[in-house]
Amino acid sequence: MNDIRYLWTPPAIQSLPVRGSDVRLPINRLFFVGRNYHAHAEEMGIPVDKATSRPFYFTKSPHTLVESGSTVAYPPETADYHHEMELVVAIGAPCFRATEADAAAAIYGYACGLDMTRRDLQLVARKTSKPWDLGKDVEQSSVVSEIVPMVGEVIGKGAIELRVNGEVRQKSDIGMLIWDIREVIADLSRFYHLQPGDLIFTGTPEGVGAVVAGDRIEGSVEGVGSIALDIGPAA
Questions:
Q1: What are 171-219's pLDDT values in tens digits?
Q2: Tens of pLDDT, residues 132-155
Q3: pTM here?
Q4: Contact 152, 104 (CB under 8 A)
Q5: How far apart are alpha carbons 222 and 234 in whole angstroms?
């Protein structure tokens, strides 16, 4: 296999730093839970009744991943680029059709994440029953901090906050998740063979909003860490 020749150099494996280690965590897939805080679901105009629904998901290419502390260009074809602050779960063991009781065994650790979104394009797609890809699967739109190893631990509460230029925009608690971490892993593992390196963005609280070139985004999750992103001029 060492004699394989490619037409051009394949993309590098995406990875993230691991706190307390000089070894990086290679990234496999990026999964996102939609509308997983009641107040955010309401601000998006689609309230969630947990008794009659289940989680839903979308994905992004791993090549949308950028590390905390980066500067990214304001993306093309949007006039309404939104921040979404999230707790990210890093999967560290294979997991398929797990029970909620078994779900914790798949957890390697956690990170802070930003799901940056072309909101205007997402809403057009939603209204016309088309896929969300142009609104969500945006270059440099999946921002993640260092991974904090917390093998087998389930975070059930802790403050989550986002600030733009020092002003608080999002503020909630992980305990407000509609579907908690065990429930999300168990449900997602019914559809996918989860693998080490998969990241699950668990949802964003209320207060999402637009940013412009020159803005600085800073966020944190209690017990996990912090994240930062600068929005540069349009490319």
A1: 999 999 999 999 999 999 999 999 999 999 999 999 999 999 999 999 9
A2: 999 999 999 999 999 999 999 999
A3: 0.97
A4: yes
A5: 32
